[in-house]
Amino acid sequence: MKLSGLLVILVALLVPFIWWPQISQNRDVIALGSQYLGLMSLICMALGQIIATRWPGIEALFGPMDQSYRLHKWLGLGGVITLLLHDTIDAEMKGLGKETVIVEAAETAGEISLYGILIFVVITVATFIPYHLWKWTHRLIGLFFVAGGMHYLFILKPFKNGDPLGLYMYLVMALGTIAYIYTSAPRGIRPGRKYQVDSITPQGDALAVEMSPKGGALKHKAGQFAFFAFTDAGYTEPHPFTISSAPKDDGKLRITVAPLGDFTMRLRQAVGAGQAVRVQGPYGHFGRGSKKPEIWVAAGVGVTPFVALAQALKADGPAVQMIFAVRNADQAPHLAELQDLAAANPRLSLTLWESSKSGRLTGDKIAEIAGGDLKGTRVSFCGPSEMRRALSLSLAGYGVSGRNFHFEAFEIRTGLGLKRFGAWLLKRAQQAKEAAN
Fold first, then answer.
1. How open is the CA angle 263-264-265, to the nearest 5 degrees?
2. Would you say 113 and 144 are in contact if contact means Cβ atoms under 8 Å apart?
3. I need a surface site. Which of 51, 237, 283, 336 has the fewest CB within 10 A?
4. Do residues 187 and 237 touch, judged by C-beta distance below 8 A?
5. What was the pLDDT predicted at 13?
6. Any idea where the FAD-binding FR-type domain is (predicted)?
7. Shared-domain flag, residues 236 and 337
8. pTM of the complete model
9. Would you say residue 171 lies in a domain?
């Protein structure tokens, strides 16, 4: 995450405290603190809504889209925590005026906002709920943000809506509401590029979908991803796919679809030549290396950004050792293409790692292939998260710092790591039991 984005969030949360000394005079500071917690909750949720728009400039401010989405998740969690604290700590103050029907309605709106957001946060954390159901319910969170805004506007508070703090919160709520309306609008009215599927070809256990622009082409860099909506196939909801081809003069794109979930399994059966595709993007900064030697580690369909990067690798570019890990060679997407690229470019060395024959790929094996000491070497990885964590830990012993281990995880939906934490606790308990015996 970029420091600039974190600073924006910090400043946005601290601005209300500019008026704290003035407002807190002769006031119950505990109740005032509770009201401020409510303001911070609204600010967190508004910033989360803004990041979700994927507007131009979001990546420049908050970081690559995978990092921005993680920030979006933690802003949502921060909004819920501050909202719960606001509800728990009594925020009522004496001498603010008489409660009216509007004030009572505002209190009801606040309760609706609280319980609605809590329900949808539980749905988000429960990653076993199907993606399409989560995506549909996730859009409704913005309605509870609006309800929280109505609660704030009409509730009794120690400042007026026309005061500087009130005007600041007007701006926060306006931006958050505009962002919610934008993300909820029909997909067709959002900026995007129109493409048409040219061909579909098998690539190992995946399918390569090539498409041509119908109008202005997407301008991307090797290693980036975009959101694709296969409208003619009946899938209007955009999904992220890495572009598995380097930029071309004719604007053609290629993505590689592997059967990794319900959506990709259905898509493989529904997509066909001549169908329309709507593309939004590009996003991501994966593969932006230096002039120093690099190691690329791809696992399965995680090879897609590296295919594009290999196509774009110049003959005078950095030396690259690429390791492609698959179970069997016949399952490896774009293997023949990579072999041809490696044969044509002396700066690219390709090693195929078949786990069915050689076992699991480890940091020790990568170091052995690359020649030992890896201190200062940039390693880029794309593949399963469990493999990424294991390799990151083992490669640290060979001098590959976290700063030099690069990956991009653009999961739109992630939990809070509770499953991994539970597995860790179970492992430690088993170790303790074995030690006791």
1. 90
2. yes
3. 336
4. yes
5. 96
6. 187-289
7. no
8. 0.77
9. yes
Strand order across the beta sheet in which 276-283 lies: 235-242, 225-230, 276-283, 193-203, 206-213, 253-257
**pLDDT at 418 (0 to 100):** 47
CATH number, residue 382: 3.40.50.80
List, as one string, the DSSP characters of 129-196: S-HHHHHHHHTTHHHHHHHHHHHHHHS--SS-TTSHHHHHHHHHHHHHHHHHHHHHS-GGGSS-EEEE
With H, G, I as helix, E, B as strand and everything else as coil, classify residue 350.
Answer: strand
Sites in the chain below the pLDDT cut of 70:
1, 123-138, 187-189, 260-263, 288-290, 409-437
Q: What is the pLDDT at residue 432?
A: 62
Q: What domain range is 349 assigned to?
A: 294-407
Residue 281 is predicted with a pLDDT of 86
Q: Are residues 13 and 88 in the same domain?
A: yes
Token pair for 192: 């995007």
On whether both 174 and 279 belong to a single domain, the answer is no
Whether the Cβ atoms of residue 82 and residue 40 lie closer than 8 Å to each other: yes
Nearest by Cα to 252 from 220, 204, 288: 220
Q: What domain count does the chain have? A: 3
- pLDDT tens-digit series, residues 74-123: 898 899 899 999 989 988 887 777 778 988 888 888 888 888 888 777 76
Q: Answer whether residue 140 is part of any domain.
A: yes
